[in-house]
Amino acid sequence: MIHIRQSALFVLLLAPLASQAPPRQPLTIPLHCPSGDCPLLKGAPQTAGMRSGFVRLVTGASVGWHSTGQNEESLVILKGNGQALIEGQAPREIAAAQLVYIPSGTRHNVTNNGSEPLEYVYIVAPAVEK
Fold first, then answer.
1. Disulfide check for 125: which of 6, 26, 50, 84 has CB 3.0–4.6 Å away?
2. How far is it, in rounded angstroms, from Cα 91 to Cα 43?
3. Which H or E element spans position 13?
4. CATH H-level superfamily of 25-126
5. What is the pLDDT of residues 65-105, one digit of tens each?
6. pLDDT digits (tens, 9 = 90+) for 22-65
């Protein structure tokens, strides 16, 4: 019983510290990425759960089939063209100045079938129904 009271007291004393975390700040992040796959936003504590990154695919390359699980994803195509492959659907042609939305739990892949590098920024955030 004493152990439970000590644990409860410890939690009550630390609870105010959790609310004293510094507030999130606006950010400006350059899109310079020499390696071709660079994280931009990395989730908590930098954001409330959003992650993002910059991807550069050479001709013929793909990111590989994957799912973002409980997250939804957007791709902002900056340069080049290619295909967004969504499991169970026909390939979608993508090109610069387009946004691709991928719902949570959807297996997908991105392939560069163009003649120049395909560059895009991905944004992944928890899917929360309102």
1. 50
2. 30
3. helix 2-18
4. Jelly Rolls (2.60.120.10)
5. 999 899 999 999 999 999 999 999 999 999 999 999 999 99
6. 677 787 877 777 777 878 888 887 888 899 999 999 999 999 99
Kindly state the tokens that stand for 75. Answer: 């791709």
Q: How many residues in the chain?
A: 130
Do 70 and 105 meet the contact criterion of CB atoms below 8 Å apart? yes
Do the bridges between strand 37-42 and strand 108-111 make them parallel or antiparallel, or are there none, so unpaired?
unpaired
Is the Cβ–Cβ distance between 102 and 73 less than 8 Å?
yes
- Token pair for residue 77? 């195509």
Asked if residues 54 and 119 have their Cβ atoms less than 8 Å apart, the reply is: yes
- For the chain, the straight-line distance linking the first and the last C-alpha, in angstroms and rounded, comes to 41
